[in-house]
Each structure stands twice: as structure tokens, then as C-alpha cells.
Amino acid sequence: MRGDHSEHSFVRTAIGHPAFVTGFVLSALFVALALISFVWTPFDPTRLAISNKLQSPSPQHWLGTDHFGRDMLSMIMVGARVSIAVAFVAVGIGMIIGVPLGLYAAARRGSLIDEIIMRGNDLVFAFPSLLLAIMITAVFGPGAVNAIIAIGIFNIPVFARLARGAALSLWTRDFILAARVAGKGRTRISAEHILPNIANLLIVQGTIQFSLAILAEAALAYVGLGAQPPLPSWGRMLADAQTLISLAPHMALIPGFAIIITVLGLNLMGDGLRDLFDPKLRRGRG
Fold first, then answer.
1. Which one, of 34, 28, 147, 24, lies nearest residue 84 by Cα?
2. Quick one: which of 31, 39, 210, 227 could link to 144 by a disulfide (CB 3.0–4.6 Å)?
3. How many structural domains are present in the chain?
4. Which residues pair with 95 in a beta bridge?
């Protein structure tokens, strides 16, 4: 009963949080477009129709067409699928590898393995995320898979550092000391007690990293190192439009707004989740 009351309280607080609701709606919109694109798009996003090129938005083509006559709405829908898939897998790689590394380092604070993990994180952080992604994709070749690997590698130290910092603050707590007295090992304590207590922080950070991953994927596609033709990509749509802005401004505005709105929605949702997971704020609003 207490769990149900807590869940209902959280839902009521979430519904009353404007930033979270706005972010959730914007994010859900593009997730819905991506899912719908698996079964339906207004037109084939790869079909060339030169006779229809550079058309402005119309009842037939709601968002117009590009320089090859391809339907922009169809390309945006499939591009959303590509961006979300790349970001989801890349952030997943960062969490799956980074969180255990951070928990392991925190459990052995001050040891050689802790020092190695943290200095490795510092090495990755020494390179700007986009530069690191460009270096990796330039070496191993362009493509969605290599873009995922490149973005995922940068996410590993982000989650490792967050998990370590949050875990260190818990290792001196009474319930952790009680678990150690009960004979539980460091690995078991990290999995059973530390991880559940820092899950909220990881979820919030995951939402923020998701938006950054979408930006990184668009940037890689813009310079030709992301998803390759004929697969539509928001970043490559911007690259194709850069020489045609005066003739067909919708070619640049539409994918640009898609990126802005999606990233804005994810950031708002992340900020909302940070507020909602704050016990003090929840008590104040409840």
C-alpha cells in the first residue's frame, strides 16, 4: 500500500512539473515517429523523383521535398529512427561498461585499480567528445555501427565517474557498514545496496547523455562519418541543404528543428527527472 501511494504521489508530482511534461511530450513525439516509420511512411524515403525536387511544403508533401525529390517527412521519420537507435545503443554501451567500472573503483578506493580506472577516464576526457568520435570513425570507416562505438566510448567515463562519485558517498553510510558486518563482499554490496541507491542519478544522466548522443550522431553524419546513404540521417540532410538554403530553406530548417526539438525535449525531461527524484522537492510539491 505504501509503495502504491508513493508511486501515485510521484505520478501526480510528474504531471504537475511543466518542464518534465513538456520534455516528455516532445520526446514521445519523435519516438512515435520513429516507431511508425517501421511500418509506414508517406513515401519511400529513398525513392528519387527529380521532377518533384525542391518543392515547398504542400498537401501532398507536408514538409516539402529535397533536391532529389525525396519526401522530407518520410526522411525525418526514418532519420528519427536512426538517431534514436544510435543514441540508445551508444548510451547503453556507456552505462553497461561505465557503471560497473565506477562501482568497482569506488569499492576499492585508493587502490591501484581505482587509480588506473580514473586515469583512463581522464585520458578519454582529454579529447572533446566530437573530436574523439571523428577520430574513431575516420580510422575505422564511416557508418552507423562505428558511430555507435565512437559515441559509446565517450559515454563510458561519464557514467564511470558519476557512479564512482555517488558510490563513494554511500560507502560510509550505516546500512553499508551493517552489510559489511553481515559478511557481504564488496561486489555484492555494490550490486545489492549501492546500485539501487544511485539508479536515479544514472537515469537522469542517461537522459542527458541521450540528447548529447543525438547531437553527436548528427554531427558525424554532417561530416559524412555517420549513417551512410541511402539511409536518411538528420545530420546529412543538413549537409545536403547547406548549398541550397536560398533556394529551398525548408531543407535546412526542417531537420534543424527536428534536432533542436528532440534535444530540447530530452534536456527538459532530464531536468524534470532530476527535480522529481529530489526528495526535498517532492515533499515540497506533495
1. 34
2. 227
3. 1
4. none
Are 238 and 250 contacting, i.e. CB atoms less than 8 angstroms apart? no
Residue type, 126: A
* Angle at CA of residue 162, ends 156 and 167, nearest 5°: 125
Please check whether residue 235 is in contact with residue 219, taking contact to mean a CB–CB distance below 8 angstroms.
Answer: yes
Q: With contact defined as beta carbons under 8 Å apart, do 167 and 194 qualify?
A: yes
Phi-psi region at 141: left, alpha or beta (left = phi > 0; alpha = psi -120 to 50): left
Please spell the DSSP secondary structure of 29-93, one letter per residue.
Answer: HHHHHHHHTTT--SS-TT---GGGTTPPS-SSSTT-B-TT--BHHHHHHHHHHHHHHHHHHHHHH
pLDDT band at 142, cuts 50/70/90? confident
**Whether the predicted model's global pTM rises above the 0.85 cut:** yes
Question: What CATH number does residue 92 fall under?
Answer: 1.10.3720.10
Side chain identity at 125, as an amino acid letter? Answer: F
Helices 129-140 and 195-222, packing angle to 10 deg: 60
- Nearest CA to 60 among 73, 48, 47, 75? 73
Q: Which residues contact 190 (CB under 8 A, 6 or more apart)?
A: 103, 104, 106, 107, 167
**Residue-wise pLDDT tens digits, 74-84:** 999 999 999 99
pLDDT tens digits, residue range 33-57? 999 999 999 999 999 999 999 999 9
Asked if 42 and 1 touch (Cβ cutoff 8 Å), the reply is: no
Domain span including residue 216: 2-285
The one-letter code for the residue type at 143 is G
| DSSP states of 205-245 | HHHHHHHHHHHHHHHHHHTT-SSPTTS--HHHHHHHHTT-T
